[in-house]
Each structure stands twice: as C-alpha cells, then as structure tokens.
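Before relying on records like the one below, remember that each one covers exactly one chain. Contacts with other chains, cofactors or solvent are not represented anywhere in the record.
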Amino acid sequence: MYSKILVPLDGSETAETVIKFVEELSTPPAEVVLLRVAAPVEHDVLAETGRLIPVWEQRVSLETHFSHYLRRTGASLRHRGIKVTTEVRFGKPVKEILESAATHGVDLVAMASHGRKGLDRLIHGSVSSAVLKESSVPVLVLNATKSAEVGKVVAA
C-alpha cells in the first residue's frame, strides 16, 4: 500500500473524517504525518487585560495548542501500531501542504473536502482542489459531505 501518508487537518470534524480511511490504507510499519497549517502571526495584539502579546508568544501558544490537537487526533492510528508524526506550519495552506509532502517524502496526501460550491467556494477557495492540481504525489480527496451519506471516496 502506502508507506508514508500526509494528512492535512484544519481542526474541523469534516477534515478529520479522512482519518478512518487512512487507518484502512495504513498497515505497520506505515507512517502518517498529521499536519496543521495556521495563518501566519504577523502583529503583536492587545489582550483584554491590556497586556501586549508579542508575535513570538502568540506563535508558541498556537503551535502548542495545535500540537496537542494533532497528538490527540492521531491516537487511533498509534493504537493500531502506525507511526504518527505531527507538524505545525504557518503560512498559506496549499503551499505548506505541498512543502510538507516534499519534506517528508510522502507517497500519498489524504484529505477531506468541505464540499463548498458556488459563492462559498469562490470566497474560501478550495485547498483540496489546489493540492490535487499541484501535487507531485497521488492525492486522495474524501468528499466529506457525501461520505457521511454513502461512504464514497473520491481519489485522483
């Protein structure tokens, strides 16, 4: 099957639906890389308490929070004996997903699509579509809205 799979997650239940399919595609000694891309932190912010929170502190806080999230999310994979690596990156999702795939030498990117259409897709874009078009490795895109209804997986 696949020896190393990258799974980009955005913190939503929709994105996490791909995990059960990744469990089925992975058998030890496979490795799964769970990735969370966050928007870059560019400015100090003023907290409600009046304290100025510097960029580095915000970044460390986000990285810690997302690392805990990824470790919790990967628990079912680790329980099956699959090695799980986690990574938090800051930047534009498509660029960071593609760079992470190259850095880790994955042979599959597996992700869920939110199934946005029309104006919503135009405004929010489609990360999965862009990754599918630009990736140099195979990409499995789970249509999360339809998979709940019929268990359909769309692969390309």
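Residues 148-156 have pLDDT under 50 and may be disordered.
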